[in-house]
Amino acid sequence: MADSGAPPDRIxxxxxxxxxxxxxxxxVFDTGFDPGFLDVLEKHxxxxxxxxxxxxxxxxxxxSPYISWHSGTPALISDLLSFHSPEYINELVEADKEGGKTxxxxxxxxxxxxxxxxxxxxxxxxxxxxxxxxxxxIAYALVRPPGHHAQPTQAxxxxxxxxxxxxxxxxxxxxxxxxxxxxxxxxxxxxTAQGFYESNxxxxxxxxxxxxxxxxxxxxxxxVDELGDGEGFGYNLNVPLPNGTGNRGYxxxxxxxxxxxxxxxEPDMMVLVVGQDSSAFDPNGRQCLTMKGYLxxxxxxxxxxxxxxxxxxxxxxxxxxxxxxxxxxxxATLEGVLNLPHPLLSDPIGHYPEDExxxxxxxxxxxxxxxxxxxxxxxx
Length: 380
Fold this sequence. Notes:
globular, alpha/beta, 12 strands, single chain, eight-stranded parallel sheet
């Protein structure tokens, strides 16, 4: 479905300050642990400061004239059941009633967390509905807690509810025949993949650090051979990238792997799952993207949306833990999505040497594997 209209002149941002109430605490990085011999403990990386800066850069930064603000609303339990099992949702509800609990490593449901999670899911649904109702072309759900690790039956990696996955179900139930999800967070979008693992209606593509499984809450490895099951075989494409892949490596992966897959799949709706933890300075990743790389990824995704989904693109916030640079990288991504003629904001720290030679060889190997094993990529 090609886009016959003019280029979008705005991004509709969905946000609600109630999501700031999710307090993840302090400790040694994301453990919540106080060893007793440190004078200064750090905030959990998924803290409200990072999102406050994202809000402020879109409010007062040079991209602000292109931003239209909307308020999100909490999701209903019935909304959540499109993706999650009733048993899992009941577990979260009971944990909230009891004052909270540690759900899994680094993932703390504290007082206020459940309401924030409902707001994150509902705000993402509101953004998707705005697009489905024809009110805009590009909507960005600026949400926390993040969601792409949350699986149908369990939490994982700071995530309780799969915000993007729930919104994808809304699109499918509203007449979209096929939806493509491209995830550029530094970690594998295992929850979203798991939720659509047996579906040929949703193409999930994840570009991530080659980190493998990290325990019972994250049994998936993110390897190239996790392709889906049944009717969904071939519709989960993993792109595990070497540490330090950088701007040129990421753009090469987008051009050689993501663009051809989307062109073959021909989705009715595009979803970009974005995390700035792939940046050169993030404490939770080692992929070395700078603002330039995020801008180019935004341009590529925008072009795909114009070609296939009438320009409709939902962007969903995930990770990104450098409190200041994540906001800059978000700004660059949205500049790219808008396809503005010149960058609006210069990179304050993004002077990082690149050597993409090894990454390109890895990407070529992934491409060969996918061509040999994924039927739809070989259609005429």
